[in-house]
DNA sequence: CGGAATCCTGAGAGATACTG
DNA sequence: CAGTATCTCTCAGGATTCCG
């Protein structure tokens, strides 16, 4: 199976979906911290502002990475959840975590000692689809 | 092992290194097409221009992802190669490819049929460090 | 060949205030 | 609570030319 079977580059395509600032941070907080709500993201994502957060959430919903559900209570409640497609980004997320945990232990860990993803998240290598 | 051992987020840290436009494209061409030279990147990376390419290469060298070697011939020859650290980004690269190959087969493949990374690259899941 | 130097532009991000 | 509405502004990136 050769590279000739490609019409466009899958890496370029993926980058267009997740490459914008904060997109992976939102995915991270949904996948690893189980955050679901607007102000939760706003309060816990480094340096994000409501305008940008709103824009990212809309893009991600349009791309099918997340779902948006409105609960008509007072006060209103809106929850965002990862779709199965969004969950498939966890492989990228873990590889990203692994890279910094290996190469930047002093910045990443309080005690400065490197750890593996398996140690921290108790997870094994994500399958390649 | 809990999330409390983190000083800063490894995903955020990685994103700061590879999140800029074209960085992963350069890594891709080095890792998968064995490109090594300035004009090779310039000619084969979609929409890049010399100024941005130059900036990315410098950042990447400074970050220790690539090495720069000058061969004093006429005309001068300069080669860029992935360091071991740069090679450790291949796991992310493969996960990125896998995502689009699974979810966007019609955009990615000429025949529109999904393939796995294993089928295309004859490679198994990258290890998580 | 491998860039550096300019100049230019606009998308996108930041800050803040406001609203249903 | 979950967003809009402005308004400002920077700087990443594009286009082009030139240089050792």
Automatic annotation (TrEMBL), chains A, B:
Pfam families linked: HxlR
Keyword terms: DNA-binding, Transcription, Transcription regulation
Keyword Ion transport set for record: no
GO MF term set: DNA binding
Domain HTH hxlR-type: start-end pairs: 9-108
The UniProt record lists the keyword Transcription: yes
PANTHER family, A to Z: TRANSCRIPTIONAL REGULATOR, MARR FAMILY, TRANSCRIPTIONAL REGULATORY PROTEIN
The name this protein goes by in its record: Transcriptional regulator, HxlR family
Organism: Nitrosopumilus piranensis
Taxonomic classification: Archaea, Nitrososphaerota, Nitrososphaeria, Nitrosopumilales, Nitrosopumilaceae
């Amino acid at each position: 199976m050769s590279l000739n079977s490609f019409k466009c580059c899958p890496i370029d395509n993926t980058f267009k979906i997740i490459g914008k600032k904060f997109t992976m941070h939102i995915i991270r907080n949904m996948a690893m911290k189980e955050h679901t709500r607007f102000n939760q993201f706003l309060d816990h994502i480094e340096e994000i502002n409501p305008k940008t957060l709103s824009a990212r959430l809309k893009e991600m919903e349009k791309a099918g990475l997340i779902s948006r559900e409105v609960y008509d209570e007072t006060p209103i409640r809106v929850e965002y959840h990862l779709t199965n497609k969004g969950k498939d980004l966890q492989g990228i997320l873990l590889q990203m975590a692994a890279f910094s945990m290996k190469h930047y232990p002093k910045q990443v860990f309080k005690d400065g000692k490197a750890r593996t993803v398996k140690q921290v998240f108790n997870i094994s290598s994500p399958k390649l689809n």
